[in-house]
Amino acid sequence: MKKMNNVGIVFYVEVNGELTTLIVPVEKVRNSVEEAKKQKKKYIQYQFIVGDKLIEKQYEIKQLEEALIKTNLIGTRLVPKSLEDYLQDMTQKLCLKPIAPIVKREHELEKIWFYISQKVRNNAFITGEMDVGKTAIANEIARQISTNECPKEFSGKRVLQLKPEQLLKIKSNRVYENTVRKVMSFLVKNRKSIVLYIDNALYMKTDEFLIIMLYACIKRHNIPMLATIQSEVYDRYFAEDTSISKYLNEVYVKEPEMENIRLMVEKHLKLFENRYKVKSTEEAVKFGIYTACLSESPSYEPGNVISIFEKAFREARRKGKKEVDKQCILSCYNTYLEDYENTPKERKKATAYHETGHYIARIKSEYQKNLKISCVSILPMVDWAGVTCSYYEKKEYYICSKDYFIDEIAMTLAGRVAERRYTNLDSAGASSDLEEASMYAKAIVMKWGFSDKENNRNRSYDYEDYFLMPESKKELIDKEVQELIDAGMERAEKIISDNEGLLKVIAERLMVDEILTGEELEQICKEYEESKKVKAIEGTNE
Known about the structure:
- This protein is α/β, with parallel strands linked by helices.
- The chain contains 21 helices and 15 strands.
- Strand 3 (about 45-50) and strand 4 form a beta hairpin.
- Helix 10 packs parallel to helix 12, helix 15 runs antiparallel to helix 16 and helix 16 (about 400-425) crosses helix 19 (about 470-500).
- It is globular.
- About 35% of the residues are buried.
């Protein structure tokens, strides 16, 4: 195996709470270890200059010796030059260009180590929605192996990324088949010293030879494997494939909690600041995170948030701004500002009351305490004249009772109730709210078994069954659905009536700011409650 140049030892240094990666030449570390051993020392004190700061860190001799052994192994070429287009040595790559560790994914990482440590079924298919961070987790496994932070049995192993999309570009069938065989032969020969990684495993289902390769790696040769794939695709093409599904381990990656997203995107913000020579304020960062659901990829997943910030940084540089501001972030969203500017003030105000109604019903809900609001906007986006975006806190488990779902109906209808308070009219714009309320009401009766009627109690129907029911049965269900919608409407009207002052304050603020984050709304509510107390005290004194 050929020796590679420029491979160094990776050190992680924390400065002001931020992690910086540094590469120290192997010779420098080796010389310091040898000198320390001569002096019979157990530790070595290193000094690092990061920016304008001098950082001192102490390392055990044994720890540095292990790193030198690891680096010596990684410094040799494992993948033959003829296969480098199809197999990339990620471990070696990370020794040349290290990445910072990811945060708040300890549970998923622990599960992956458990699965790939097994003798059989030693694979982990990392699934989840788009941009949730599947690839970042796979890269973290490779990073930990490259720095010896991995379990002992993986020390000295390499993570090799298979690139099936490159194999599929080979035009000659004969050359393609021979190349696939060579790759497979190399993987089998080195199976005890590698972890195979496939990004977007669906490629392995697009060709007969790749399918055979995948099945052979998993079922016959037990090559430790990581694979990333969207959960919907995994369910369809892998979980339902009975010839291989029983050999697979799925690690589902959930959308992170809102409070953890900032930590996940921190290193990217610093990277963008250096690349575009533009700063980001704390206010702008919070605004970008909370409003990420307004983008063309409506989610709070790290990848989506990072994509939004990169566009915002580019926009700030294009406009010659020194800092990313709210306008730069709003430019990333598909807002119909021309439509908004041509909208009459009274229509904007009706939208403000409508969205505020949704917000107040959500924060005053008795049975949905784990629901949080990320932002409220009166800007027209996608198919919405305005939007109230929410997310669930995952710190506590809540029982979804019948009242829980009636609260959901109330929150859905509260926009219509609040808008009527201002306009004295019902607008067609609330049609989607009515559809959603009807959907919840039908689910309460037909799906979740919460019916109060003796003949429907503890029953669950397929929605297709509804059309096959006799008319008398349909009438009973329709009547109960209407009763639930009425109960939700009554609850919504009470909440709005009890909070009419707050409704007006928030709606008027929305008319000015057009979009408010959850934090901004919480501050408005806090100030409103404090002013009420002051007025009550003043009234008592009078």
